[in-house]
Amino acid sequence: MLREYIAGECDKYVVLLLRDYGKMTIRAKGAKRPKSKFQAITAPLDCAEFVIYQGNGFLALAGGSDIYHFDKIRGDYDKLCYAAYVLEMTERTIMEGEDCGGILDLLMRTLNVIERGNITLRLVRIIYEFKFLRINGYSPHIDDCAACGGELLGEVFFFEYGTACEKCRQGVALGETALYALSRILEDDNPFNFEIDETAANELRAAADLFIKAHNELELKSTQFLV
Ligand SMILES: [Zn+2]
Questions:
Q1: Ligand 1 centre from 182 Cα, in Å?
Q2: Å from CA of 154 to ligand 1 middle
Q3: Is the CATH number of domain 3-68 2.40.50.140?
Q4: CA 78 vs CA 91, 206, 226, 227: distances in Å
Q5: pLDDT tens digits for range 7-49
Q6: Residue 46's closest CA among 9, 81, 14?
Q7: Measured in angstroms, how far is the CA atom of residue 202 from the centroid of ligand 1?
Q8: What's the pTM?
Q9: How confident is the model at residue 224 (pLDDT cuts 50, 70, 90)?
Q10: How far does residue 157's CA lie from ligand 1's centre (Å)?
């Protein structure tokens, strides 16, 4: 469950990301009432099996059974801010009905890592962003200079298409650790398993900002709450 919209006094619309049907906006009648049977499955971060029916011109929630609630994220303000960002990015980028298998897997994996808290939230965000853009067709070129094709000797930079050599000097500087971490993020299927020092994290943050700005024009409200 990605997002809710209040509709009238008692109802709400919920935006769901469904394994078999992609993103769908569903009406949940009476879901705002305290004793609603939809209480456990219609808040952002709820994971559930949903039963949906075709109403008169709209899709409506008939019922469902809850699977998981990410309670350790809900109880921690910083984790909640990062989770809200990941949910908003997913919700705003995906179109209704679009195939979303890869995005759903990445979303679940990211939320699990945020909840467990074994790597810093800043690094989780960086990994998530590069993986998310990759699924959406944008992956930086990092084997050699993406500007001139030359070898990466000496200082390395990163710009909107990938790495740049010392001669081309485009974008932001990437040290050895940051460059290694980036290749790991791009190549590893599940790279949420390492940590980097603050300098490398700052360099990768700058690189991710640049890459996201070039390939995803969304202004996300949740970004302002990230530390
Ligand atoms: Zn070059």
A1: 18
A2: 12
A3: yes
A4: 20, 20, 8, 8
A5: 888 999 999 999 999 999 999 999 999 899 998 899 999 999 9
A6: 14
A7: 23
A8: 0.93
A9: confident
A10: 9
